[in-house]
Amino acid sequence: MQKENWTSVIKPKKSLFSVNLKEVFKGKDLLFLFVKRDFISIYKQTILGPLWFFIEPALTTVVFTIIFGKIAGIETGGIPSIPFYLAGLTCWNYFSDCFKKTSNTFIENQHIFGKVYFPRLITPLSIVISSLIKFGIQFILFLGVYFFYLAFTDATISPNAYLLLLPALIVLIGLMGLGFGMIISSLTTKYRDLRFLIQFGVQLWLYASPIIYPLSITEGKLRTVLMLNPMTSILETFKYGFFGSGTFEWWMLAYSAGFTFFILTFGILLFNKTEQNFMDTV
Amino acid sequence: MSITRVKVENLAKQYRLGEVGTGTLSHDLNRFWHKVRGKEDPYSIVTDVNDRTQNSGSDYVWALQDINFEVKEGEVLGIIGRNGAGKSTLLKLLSKVTGPTKGEIKLSGRIGSLLEVGTGMHPELTGKENIYLNGAILGMTKAEVARKFDEIVEFAGIEKYINTPFKRYSSGMRVRLGFAVAAFLEPEILIVDEVLAVGDAEFQKKAIGKMQEVSEGEGRTVLFVSHNMGSIKSLCTRSILMDNGQIVYDGDTKTCIDKYLSANKSEQDKSLKDIKTRTGSGKLKFSGYRLLNEDNKEITEATSGEFLRISVNFDLYENVNFEKVIFALNFKDNYDNILVSFVTDEMGIKFNPNPEKNIIDIDIPELMLRGGQYHIRLLAMEGGTDKSDFLDEVDNAFTITVLSSDYWNSGITLRNQEAAFSKGKISLK
C-alpha cells in the first residue's frame, strides 16, 4: 500500500487560524498581474489617461477651498487652505479607495472565484497596491503644490523630522483600509445590506476626520470622539511633518497602529473563513 | 505501483434551496445555538436526496452524498450523468472553488482546473497580456508562461491578433486563446468540465488530441466531465456514473455509458404521461404511442426497409388551433445526433381543425434505418417554431428497436449500426 503523503487535503471546515501565507507569497506573479490589469484597464481608451488621477483631488480641493474656506470660514490652523485640504484629501482618497474597493472583493470577483482557485487574499492585496500607485500620482500633485507654497509664498510652512514617519503612515492607511474592506466583503457575501452603508458611510467618515479642519480647533467631548477615530492621528501626523503645525502625540499614533493591527488581523481571519464556502451564498 | 493522485472519502455537499435572504439569519442563529450546545446541525437531518423533479418541501438538499473513489496516475476518469446529477459540484469541490459539507478529498500533486476557459481574461487587455494573466490565474508562474508563450500563441492560431485588445476578438478566438493557455498547464491532476463543447469542430478535435497526448504521453491524471459520450468514449480509461448526487457505477467506460443510456431509456418506457422532462406550454401533451405494421397490427420492433406506422396519442388540456399546429418527429442515435427528421409544415401537411381521436399517425413506407436502437423526440408547436410556440416537447419520448434485414436482396443483412441509409447505386467508371 502506498504511504499517505498527500500534498493537500480538502476538509469541510477550515479552522479560523489556518491562514496560508506561504501560498499567498507563491502567487506573487498573479498579484502583480492583477495590479497591472487594474491600472491599465482604468485609463484605456481615455485621452488624458492617468492625468485623471490629478484632476479628481484638484477639483475637490478647489470646491473645499470655496465652500469650507471662503463661505464657511473654517480655520486651517495657520496653513494655506489649498495645500492643507490637498494633504488631507490625498491621504483620505487612498484610505477610501482601499476600503471601498476591497469591500467588494467577493461580490465583484464571483465569476472568477467561482471557476478557479487561487489564494483569495491576493485580490484585496492587489487592490491595495494598485491604489498605492494612484496615491503615488496624487502625492506628486501634492508635492508640487507644497513646494510652490514653500518656495514662492511667505506662508508659515516648516517641514521637520517627523516627515520620516511618512512611509509608516502610508502603510498604516493601506492596511487599515484593507482590514476594514476585508471584514465588509466577508459579511456582504450573505447579507448585502452593508454595501449600502459603506456607500455613504465612508463619505460621512471623511467629515469625522481632520481633513477640512485641524484637530486643534476642536475641544471637549468632540475632541475625544475625534481622537477615537483611528484615521485622526495619521492625518494629523502627515500634516505635522509637512507643515510643522497641528497635533502630534506618539501615543495617538500608537493607538492608530494598534487599531490597524487589530482590524487587519480580524479582517484576514474572517476573510479566510469566508472564502471557502462563499460561492454557495454570494 | 502507480501512485494514487486523488482520493475522495465520504464526500457530501449540502445546498440550501430558495433565496438567501429573510430566514437565512434565523437559520444561522438556530444553527449557532445548536452548535453552542454541542448538538448536530438541525438542517443536516432534514436534508433531502437531490431529485430536482420532486419537490418534497425541504429547504436543503444533498447535491452530493457518500462519494468515494480514487484516481491513479495516468488515469483519465470520465464523469457522466444527467443534468443536476452532481458532476459539476464534484468538480467544484475538487478544484477548491467551494468547500465540502462532510468528508475529505486528498490530493497528491499540483492541481489545475478548467471549469471554464479564459477565466479572468480582461476585455481591455491585449491577447498577450491576457495570456500572462490567465496563466497566472490558473496557477502558472510568469516564467512558465514566458517559456511556453510561443507554443500557446501557435496552438491558439491567433498570431496576428496578439497585440489587439481581447474585446475585439471573435467569440471563437476567445475560446481558442483560453483553451490554449489551459492546454499548456502542467499540473499532475487536471480537472476539465465540458469546456470542449465550445469552439468549432476542428478546434474540438485539436483539443481532444491535446488532452489525449497529455494523459498518455505525460502520465497526467485527468478528471473529465462531458455530456458528449463520443469524447468520453475516446478519452476515458474509466468512468463513473452519477445520479442524484451519488455514484451509481464506477468501472470501465463502455459499461458506464451503456448504463447511463439505458437508465435514460427506462425513463422513456413508461407511458409518455409520466415523463417529467418536457418543455412547452402544456396545452397539448403527448400521452402514449404504438408501433404498427401495414396491416395495422401492433408490433414491438420495426424492420429496416419495411413499412412502419408510429401512432402517437395526445391529451388536450386547453383549446388548440390545429390548423396552425406543426408536428415534428426525430429519430436520434445514442449520442443525441438527429438522423431522420419529419416536420409537418415542410411536408405541406395541415391538420384538420377538429380531430376526433387525438391521434397523430406517422406513416413511413420504407424505414431507411439500419439495425439498432433509436430514440424518438416528439414536438408539437402552434403558430411558429420558436421556443415560445412549443406546446409540448419530449426529448427522449421512447425508443424504437430496428431489426436489420437484407434490404438490397444481396444475401447480406445490413450491419447493425445506428445510422440512416438511402436508396442509391454505386458504380466504378
Q: What attributes characterize this protein structure?
A:
heterodimer, A: about 280 residues, mainly alpha, 12 helices, B: about 425 residues, alpha/beta, 19 strands
Question: Any idea what the shape of chain A is?
Answer: globular
For the largest beta sheet of chain B, what order do the strands appear in spatially?
Answer: 6-7-8-4-9-10
Mean pLDDT score of chain A = 88
Largest interface: A-B, 38 and 47 residues
User: How many DSSP E strands of chain B?
Assistant: 19
**Low-confidence residue ranges of chain B:** none
Please give the radius of gyration of chain B in angstroms. 26 Å
Structural class of chain B: alpha/beta
Distance between the termini of chain B: 59 Å
Helical coverage of chain B, percent range: 10-25%
The number of helices of chain A is: 12
Largest sheet of chain A: none
What is the CA-atom radius of gyration of chain A, in angstroms? Answer: 21 Å
Oligomerization status of the protein chains: heterodimer
What fraction of the residues of chain B are assigned to beta strands by DSSP?
Answer: 25-35%
Secondary-structure element series of chain B: EHHEEEHEEHHHEHEHEEHEEEEEEEEE
